[in-house]
């Protein structure tokens, strides 16, 4: 099984970052504007990227200001069955965010493209949290 791992350091509190990655308002500003999101374990978040089908992520874990885990139950074939985690830890005046997208069945060009896009996601998150 393959795993994408990306890290970034953001000059914002873990509470602000957590709110951004767990709410419609936050994810709507950094990922896609067409979405249904609720910060509740068991809820299935829906993201519309203008493709043939929605991306649906079931919330597996929420630890306020510390951790979020999603399991992909509907999306591109390569995403189904994978999980995405966000781990937050404050370090001085910054918060470290470690993003993992794991349980990929194989290393493909799509996997590589997604790795790049997760890095861009973290950059948009940083820009949003630091600059509004």
Automatic annotation (TrEMBL):
Protein name, UniProt field: SRPBCC domain-containing protein
Source organism superkingdom = Bacteria
Residues annotated as domain Activator of Hsp90 ATPase homologue 1/2-like C-terminal: 11-128
| Database matches in SUPFAM superfamilies | Bet v1-like
Under Pfam families, the record lists: AHSA1
Give the family per the record: Belongs to the AHA1 family.
Q: Which InterPro entries match?
A: ASHA1/2-like_C (IPR013538), START-like_dom_sf (IPR023393)
Q: Which species?
A: Belliella marina
